[in-house]
Amino acid sequence: MDLHEDGGLRIVRAEAELDWERSQAFAERIREAARADGARVVVDLSAAVFADSSTLHVLLEARRELADRGGRLVLAGPLGAGIRRLFDLTMTSGHFEFAADTAAARHALENGPPDHLAEREPRSPET
Prior knowledge:
5 helices, Transcription Regulator spoIIAA, STAS_dom, anti-sigma factor antagonist activity, Stage II sporulation protein AA (Anti-sigma F factor antagonist), two-stranded parallel ribbon, five-stranded mixed sheet
């Protein structure tokens, strides 16, 4: 796992295999990236070919914790078939913001959240 900062973004680059054995190191890198309030974190999954439920748990937890502190998490690809399968089988894609690559993730983070993520609270009906 690699963590580096680039222009205010914290980028975690995942390894090829994200299984239970590696999930602790992965989780630690993401926690380190997300420490500051309002942190903007990109998880680069382009090199990952496999991920299991422990990885999914780490990502879901990080997304929630970042959102609670005014930050954002974007998952960058391109995603391999094994990674896409994890999100498809668990039907969790809707919980994440995806970008085609790290450049697209940077653009997304610099330009605010997409509409479906911007409003997390239900709106009251207009009268």
